[in-house]
Amino acid sequence: MTDPRYEIERDTRRTGSTVHLRLIGAFDRDAHRVLRLGLRDVFASGRRGHRVFVDMERAESIGSECIELLLVGYTRALRSGHGYEIVNAHGHVRQALALTGLCEPEVAHPAWSDDLIATSTP
Asked: Where is the MlaB-like STAS domain (predicted)?
């Protein structure tokens, strides 16, 4: 049996009404069940007004099953009066989440933008 390539850290120490979930590793099909349980625990208290931050800084990859769970978490947060934000996503993870609207697309580096502007010469 191999060790899982993913981990979820939960932090509620900052304030009682804010929950930080840090996703670490590869969130593919194998991580689906663990992520579902982690999100279920966040919303289980039934109290309104919680803020949920899903920190993706150390997430290496994300599969469609886990993206679906993050979308379900967003919907559940809206319906139950919770705040919900996905933060620190980067690279391929951010691109995948941006396609769903869960986070904004990465902005091109300003130096790269100048290279992308085509100039025509007569």
From this structure: 21-102
Q: What is the Cα–Cα distance from 26 to 75, expressed in whole angstroms?
A: 23
CATH of the domain at 47: 3.30.750.24
Please indicate, yes or no, if residue 121 is contained in any of the structural domains: no
Please report, for residues 50, 73, 74, 77, 116, the alpha-carbon distance to residue 59 in angstroms, rounded to integers and kept in the order given: 23, 17, 18, 22, 29
All residues at 6 or more sequence positions from 97 whose CB lies less than 8 Å from its CB, including other chains: 56, 62, 67, 70, 86, 89, 103
In a domain, 122, yes or no: no
Q: Pairing between strand 18-27 and 59-62?
A: parallel
Residue 17 in domain = yes
Structure token pair of residue 72: 């379900």
pTM: 0.80
Give the Cα separation of 59 and 97 in Å (integer).
Answer: 12
Q: How many domains does the chain have?
A: 1
| Token pair of 98 as six digits | 């941006």
Domain region containing 94: 6-115
